Structure formats: C-alpha cells, structure tokens
Amino acid sequence: MKSARLLVVDDAKFTRDLMIKAVKSEYTGLEVDSAQDGRKAQVLLTKNRYDLVLCDWEMPEMSGIELLTWLREQEDCRNKDIPFVMVTSLGDKEYILQAAEHGVTDYVTKPFNNEQLVNKVTKQFLRQGVISREELAELMKKRTRMLGGGSTANVLTSKIGMNTAGSAVGNGINTGPRKVRGRAMLLFAEQQAPTLIRELSTQEVVLVLKREEVPNIPTLFDAVSVGLLAGQGDDQMRFTTKGKVIFLQAQEKRVDAEAVYVGIRFVEQDAKAQQMLSKLIARLSS
User: Fold this and answer.
1) What residue numbers bound the domain in which 113 lies?
2) pLDDT of the chain, 286 residues: tens digit per residue
C-alpha cells in the first residue's frame, strides 16, 4: 500500500474517534487528521495534501455541503478534486441528489458500522491506486484465514438493501421493496444493458448487471433510465423512468465477480408513476 493521508471532519468527537479507529484498524500506516467543523477543515485542506475526506453534513460554523462546495470551487487548491465522502444521517433522496450535484464522491448514512465505513474508504483507495487489487486480494485471504472474513473482504459485497422497507406514501401505495423476478433495460452513457430485477419498490430498484455484457458499468450518482418489463406478448407491461445510482456491489465476494448489483433511486416520480410501478410490482410478484 502506498502512503496515504485522510481527513475526518465531524463536530462530534466521539464520531471522529470512531471513524479514525475504524480506518486505522484496517490501514495501520494511514496518516489521519481531523477537524471539528468546516472552517477548521478549510485550513487543513489549504495547508496539506489529502487522498480522501470523510465529512459530516450537519456541523456548526460551516456544514459539510458548504465545505464540499467550497473545495470543488478552489481552482488553485491541490485537494480540489480528491474523493469526498459524506457521512450523515440525512439519507433522503433530496439530500443524496443535492450532494451529487455539488460533487460528492460517495455517501455513508448514519448510523454506520466499521465495515460499511472501511468499505467506502477501500473503494476510493482502489480507484486512486493507494492499494492495488493484488494487495486487496492478499488482505482478503489473510482476513479469511485469521477471522473467517473481514471488512476488506466485503468491500464490494456487503448486503446493501433498499431503505424504503415498510414505508408507505400518503395515497396508500405500499412502497416497501419486494424481491421479484423480471427483466429490465438500463440506459446510461449511450449504452443499453439488459438486466434482471432483484428488488423493486415504487421508489427504488436493484438490478443485476452482467459485467461481460456491458463494457462499462455506471458509477455512483450517475443519471440513468430504467425500462421495466412484466408479462409477455399483448399482455406485456412496460414502464420507463429516470433515476440516480445510489449503490453498487459485487454479487460475489470476489474482486473478479461476474455480476454487479446496481441500486437506483427513482427521480421525478408523481402519483401516476407510482401507481404504474405498484401495478407492475404486483404483476411481477404474482
């Protein structure tokens, strides 16, 4: 592993200590700085070079989204384009989309466990070349031998479910996710990828994407379109809607996994669209 430096920003000392302990338990040689608010983080970001920022959203003096906006606008700052992971209890769709619009790299929703946080850090370290896939594979083997598996081994494979389970909207439509079987077409970046539906609700869908069938998979917060299908022939139902990618995970605990789960949060949904989705879910569930 190459030398790396991390900045943790949170107004709660307990949470800062928790994040620092989690990442240093996995990466013992990692250099970590911390700040209790956005103003102090600005000073550190101007002074030092970092490889990653873990930042709370709600803080006094300067919020996480204000710090993110400031950082992305600093043309002469060497940290301008570094990965910025928002760690926050604000997990609703509007906050996720707002963070994406301001250039956030990834999102961790509180409360989180050590594994979830370390997985996000490892994913960014892989992308930046701080840790190689060969080094990750060795860590996976070591964890499996010593502990029967560990957080690094699950960097792309932790069981991420949809967060709308058990919820309902005012018109009485059940929005909870259901495991269903069906087909879909994922459209992004001028690509059309045939996929299978794993879970579906009126707010989100989890698709199974075969890597060998698509040259490039979508990335987090990408804007996509999803065409959902149910039935056959004249009885077939079709519905297409827009969404944002909110999570990615490998189907198997291998860095060369053949399939990827793609979680998509629907956007621009009105009551009519939710009714159509509710009917489609019922058809696929029957």
Assistant:
1) 5-154
2) 888 999 999 988 888 998 999 899 888 889 999 999 999 999 999 999 999 999 998 888 898 999 999 999 998 899 999 999 988 776 556 667 777 787 888 888 877 777 788 888 988 998 888 988 888 877 766 655 544 444 443 343 334 444 433 333 333 333 445 566 788 899 988 788 888 888 888 888 889 988 887 777 888 888 899 998 887 767 778 889 999 988 888 877 777 788 888 989 888 778 888 888 888 888 887 6
The H or E element that residue 187 is part of is: strand 178-188
Whether residue 90 is contained in a domain is answered as yes
Residues 104 and 42 occupy one common structural domain: yes
| Number of domains, the chain | 2
Burial 121-149 (b: 16+ CB within 10 A, else e): bbbbbbeeebbeeeebeebbeebeeeeee
Backbone torsions φ then ψ of 155, nearest 5 degrees:
-55, -35
CATH code of residue 76: 3.40.50.2300
Phi–psi pair at 106, nearest 5 degrees: -155, 175
Beta 178-188 vs 223-230: how paired, if at all? Answer: antiparallel
Inside any domain, residue 134: yes
Residue 161 lies in a domain: no
Structural domain includes residue 127: yes
Q: Are residues 65 and 109 in the same domain?
A: yes
